[in-house]
UniProtKB/TrEMBL annotation:
This is F-box domain-containing protein. PROSITE patterns: FBOX. InterPro entries: F-box-like_dom_sf, F-box_dom. SUPFAM superfamilies: F-box domain. It holds the Pfam family F-box.
Length: 136
């Protein structure tokens, strides 16, 4: 007789059980689960839709920055805020906001009116946005 055992993964579980497990996870944990494989990405998108009402499966409006912004929020929630000291790491916050500002800047139409003022405005907007996300 052979003792072959089948490994059961998270995607094999009933979705109700997955939702119960996901209730113990933070947004960042669910987001990073979706980076493991295609199967886990689909599962993570279903969890995000159910728990956070974020539709990445078939979005109503296709926005090329959606994944980038959600990934930035997941990264910040995991690496930027320290719950033990109740502090926000400003250097990480500035770095992520600068990266998002550059990505948006590269995706905007070129115009002499925008210039560096757009990058400055986006940078300050993202710092304010993410500060409110973590402080409020």
């Amino acid at each position: 007789m052979s003792n072959s055992t089948k490994t059961i993964s998270l995607v094999d579980l009933p979705f109700e059980l997955v939702l119960k497990i996901s209730s113990y996870l933070r947004f960042a944990d669910v987001w990073y689960l979706g980076t493991c494989s295609k199967l886990y990405r689909q599962l993570a998108y279903q969890i995000l839709f159910h728990d956070y009402n974020i539709n990445l499966i078939k979005p109503f409006l296709i926005n090329p920055l959606d994944n980038l912004i959600h990934a930035a929020v997941a990264f910040l929630s995991r690496h930027c805020y320290s719950s033990t000291t109740n502090n926000i790491n400003q250097s990480i916050l500035n770095s992520v906001s600068n990266r998002l500002a550059k990505e948006i800047y590269y995706r905007t139409p070129e115009s002499p009116d925008f210039g560096s003022s757009l990058e400055f405005l986006l940078d300050k907007s993202f710092i304010t946005l993410f500060s409110h996300i973590f402080c409020d």
